[in-house]
Amino acid sequence: MKHVRNKKRVAGLIVLSMLAVTVVSACSSNGKSEEGGAEAPKDIHILLSHTLAKYAMQYKDDDIYTKELSKLSGFNLKYEFLGHNTDYIQQLTVRFASKDLADMVRTDSILSSIHPGALEQGVFTPLNDLLDKYGPNLKKKIAQEQWDSPRVSKDGKIYGIPYLTAAPAYKVIYIRQDWLDKLNMPQPKTLDDYLKFFEAVKVQDMNGDGDPNDEYGFYVRENLDYSDLFFKEFGVHPREWIWRDGKLQSGMIQPEIKDALRFWKMLYEKGYINPNLFTNKSSDWRAGIKQGKGGSWMHDVPNYAADWQPSLFVNEKNVKISMLPGPEGPKGKGLSPVSDQIGHVWVIPSTNKHPENVIKYLDWAWSNPAAEKYFSYGIEGVNYTVENGKVKYDAASKANTDNDSWEFYRTTQNPMKDGRLEPLVLDIDPNAEILKKGLQAANQSIYKNDGLHMPVLESLKTRPELGFGSGTLFLDMFAKVITGKADLDASFDEFVKEWKRRGGDQAIQEATDWYNKFHAKK
């Protein structure tokens, strides 16, 4: 009997041992590590701008695209959208100040004025080791030059992950081709060609509403956003930094700007540009163009589908759009400087207890065919179907046009790059022909950039008035000069003195020191 009891006891222990192994194995395959501890949770909270994308602006927590991308990637993604441009900057500044951040955050640079001192204060997670361990595809797919950018790295340490633009350049001149055809005019190439077009637009009722005075040759947006044309044609652009006389100097203080101011003043006086240019907000600017108030305007090639397709224009039939390179001026041409192709930068706050999840997710996005397919076509069975091994995609379907959902999965959700011009997209895009022509025009409008890779200057971080745009000395001077409220030469000369006095001279010295040090390494 004792022998029998021992046999039963041994058998019982064997069964218990097997059960234990099974339980451990099951735990390991259901969120447990082999050591018995819980795996890192796979939640990723993403903080970014809605960039005025319709779908993102009306985003709901039960979003089908977020569910699909979470399923494909194996990560539980949660998006939180803030405003756009100035709103985003203000809102993100508050979030950094209050340390109310997410697992990954979109910024423009690790040295951004949005979060001054954040890098030095250890707000960002150093990424070198994490990238080596969890992001081999990520490291390989992004160029070393982009990893070395001061927007991403400092002193050999990587603190950000680049989000790339759709192309080396994509800023172009949009023009009403149907108006050119109606006027029997060729596409303009020079400044004189544009002036002839502007004059014709001024005197004729191009939009057919009975009022010949409500159309403008070039439609301008407040703060010269997407409207900073007619500068490089005279030799220098106010946003650029140029190497001159042994120094890296701001373009906005160069004497050639006077010629550009004279041209702009003439445009204003002749009624070739809209008189509300200093208050014409982005939404009003878009609406005005679609109402037939603009003969030409400046914008990005990828915005064609969302903003400038002929079907989006109101009260006009047979609208035709063309995209052109920048005009040729007496001293040059160009719409975009040579860039690093970094659209913005992802940072991982040091409050993220599992930064490896972000790196793993991005590595998946950059390398997995399922990711490439999703960021091009969306959800199979919703946005596209597959027949006989070929993708069938209807850009005009309700699923793809509903609040421009295509823009959401190609750009807003896409953590790698602006995906609107990717090869898979162009293969099925009904607008492929005009987009390709637009890219050619944009590439013809790239100009040399002496300040390429220059970080935000310390001397300018607390002096926004020395920059370009809203609230700056330059725009204030520009407005007074072109509206005739100030003498051109005297006002510009005074602006240059004031710009230098308020810290511009210090900025030039800092920029020059950076330039000499940066180029000495090459």
Describe the 3D structure.
The protein is an alpha+beta fold and 522 residues long. It is 42% helix and 13% strand. It contains 21 helices and 16 strands. The strands form 6 sheets. It has a 5-stranded mixed sheet with strand order 2-1-3-13-6. It has a 3-stranded antiparallel sheet with strand order 10-7-11. Helix 14 runs antiparallel to helix 16 and helix 20 runs antiparallel to helix 21. The longest helix is centred in the last third of the chain and has 33 residues. It is globular and about 70 Å long.
| Terminal Cα span | 88 Å
Mean pLDDT: 91
Unreliable parts: 1-36
Q: Sheet bearing the most strands, described?
A: 5 strands, mixed
What general outline do the C-alpha atoms trace?
A: globular
Question: What oligomeric state do these chains adopt?
Answer: single chain
Q: What is the β-strand count? A: 16
Query: How much of the sequence is in beta strands?
Result: 5-15%
Q: Find the structural class using helix and strand composition.
A: alpha+beta
**What's the alpha carbon Rg, rounded to whole Å?**
28 Å
Roughly how much helix do the residues carry, as a percent range? Answer: 40-55%
Largest sheet, spatial ordering of strands: 2-1-3-13-6
Helix tally equals 21
